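User:
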Amino acid sequence: MAWFPFFIQLEGARGLLVGGGRVACRKAEKLLPFGARLTVVAPEICAELAGMAGLTLCRRPFADSDLVPAPDFVIAAAGDRALNRRIAALCKARRILVNVVDDPAGCGFYFPALVQRGRLTVGISTGGASPTAAAWLRRRLEAELPPGFARVLDRLAARRAARGETAAALSEPERAEQARRDFAAEMAAAAPLPAPPAAGAVALVGAGCGTAEWITVRGLRLLQQCRAVVYDDLIDPALLDQVPADARRVYVGKRSGRQAMPQAEINDLLVRLGRRGGLVVRLKGGDPYLFGRGGEEALALQRAGLAYEVVPGVSSALAVPGQAGIPVTQRGVSRALHIITAHSAGDASPDYRRYAALEGTLVFLMGLQRLPRIAADLIAGGLPASTPAAVVSGGNAPCPAAVRAPLADIAEAARKAGVQPPAVILVGEVAALDLRPGAPLPDGLL
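Assistant: Predicted structure:
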């Protein structure tokens, strides 16, 4: 008998996940983006599962009392088939929806192969006959969708809401015809892109430094077709929603001295994944080639003989100041830009005095902890203490802030404002500007 597909609201739903291995991890990955509150029960829980946010972890064997009070649904993903069957029997006796891994007869519901594009969710099921067939169909559907389909739906929803009472006055055939015209117009605007790289390729994709909409169309297209994604900190979680449901996700984030995986291991991981075939996306904050160590990853792929491409991204060096109304160049003010990393391996005591002789705007990345030293060195190198300076934390930073002060006072001003990394430091006349909409018009720029 065929299974009927319901679409249900999981926000706040209580789920019990019995099992702590890779299979349980994949189940949690599918459910968490929909707002389910999951409790994981298993004597041993793998590091990847334990590292997911939003889970309640219980490192112990399953007990019948875990079903009291009754959760909204249960997933039996233990490595013990007998235990999974017992859990299924208990759930069915209590009329609790249950999914049992690799046991279609024991299931009260199945996990579909998912295709997601913003508001669109397509669930595919073969009734347990062949998950491989469901995954094949999912990939075919994903290949047919234009890269901007999520935005197509957003615009169609906006059109529908804007018409309101006007649409209500139309007849049903007229409303249907208007809807068809709207859909055709939006789909025509969503032009297809070239095909992704050949099998066994790696794409180094810049995710930008802001919301998911800051990624390039090419980068989004590759992300939607990948078989694996290796991603960093400061990535908008909405981008991971664009990854195919059965794609492998590997977190390798680094931030402010904390590192999930050394760079050499990341390089090796990309080579291993690339050799397995399919498209691998290395999703990096900002731009891969601007202090993102993308060059090292490209060299590793080149040495391994793997095909790869690089998709540029919006860099925080330009975009984060722009969010605060600071253009890094401005006619008549600054015609040069110098982007400098304040952090360098093996350089415990860098000398920033040499940068004082440079004309134009100085932009320091990864330098908040060294801000007092940077300011002192620049003044010692000859920059006036009154030189405008700014510290901006924006993009996907957890605590956005923007502070302006003379160079001599900028470190203390940032400390008092509680600015936290990641932050961009700017030194130069443009740092005094504020070109945000509604801000007072600067003198002398017109």
